[in-house]
Amino acid sequence: MPALALELGEQLSDIGCEDCGGTHKSAYGFIHKAGDAYGLYFATLHAGHAEPSVGLTLSIGKWWDDEAVSERSWVFLRVWPDENEYRMQFLDPALSHHRNYKALGNSLSREAALESPLRSAFFEVADFIVMHDPAVTSYLETGAVDIELWEQQRKLQGQ
Predict the structure, then answer these.
(1) DSSP letter at 109?
(2) Contacts of 58 (CB under 8 A, 6+ apart)
(3) Rounded to whole angstroms, how far apart are CA atoms 62 and 145?
(4) Beta strands 72-82 and 106-107: pairing type?
(5) Dmax of the chain from CA atoms?
(6) Distance in angstroms (rounded) separating the CA atoms of residues 133 and 90
(7) Strand partners, 4
């Protein structure tokens, strides 16, 4: 796959947790592939839960064309640390906080994602996000979102 690049979203948001009633952080960003818009993601950082995990809503496809919604597909993944690695699992897209955002394109069920020719692309982009979004990385590594690191990275991007 050609080189990927990440563009962080404008802000980290607070969102409520339907399970525990607490507040989580939400990050988002854009993925570029070979200089073209390629994807959008929303990462729900489950701060406050005993074990760190991220709910990752990830859409890839023809993002450079605003009219090409039907040429985008999205999945919902759970990402969590496990010893010296990060684990990822496709989940039902109905569990995503962003399930009603039509611009994401066509949602893929867990079963459809596992059978999709885009399966490896979803995992590659998700892995890239985990390694390059400072809010996601800091949360998975420490259980806390490093907001200062995230703000520094945004400044480096010229935003």
Answers:
(1) -
(2) 39, 40, 41, 74, 75, 76, 77, 122, 125, 126, 129
(3) 31
(4) parallel
(5) 43
(6) 20
(7) 33
Taking the model in full, what pTM does it have? 0.90
- What tokens does 158 get? 């010229």
DSSP code of residue 2: P
Q: Which amino acid belongs to residue 154?
A: R
CA atoms in the 13 A half-sphere facing the CB of 69? 8
Tokens 């990440």, residue located: 6
Return the residue matching tokens 């991220």: 54
Assess contact for 68 and 32: CB atoms under 8 A: no
How many angstroms separate the CA atoms of 72 and 136, rounded?
23
Please list the pLDDT of the chain residue by residue as tens digits (159 residues).
569 999 999 888 888 767 666 678 899 999 999 989 999 999 999 776 678 899 999 999 999 888 899 999 999 999 999 988 999 999 999 999 899 999 999 999 999 999 999 999 999 999 999 999 999 999 999 888 888 888 888 888 875
- The Cα 41–Cα 86 span in angstroms is 18
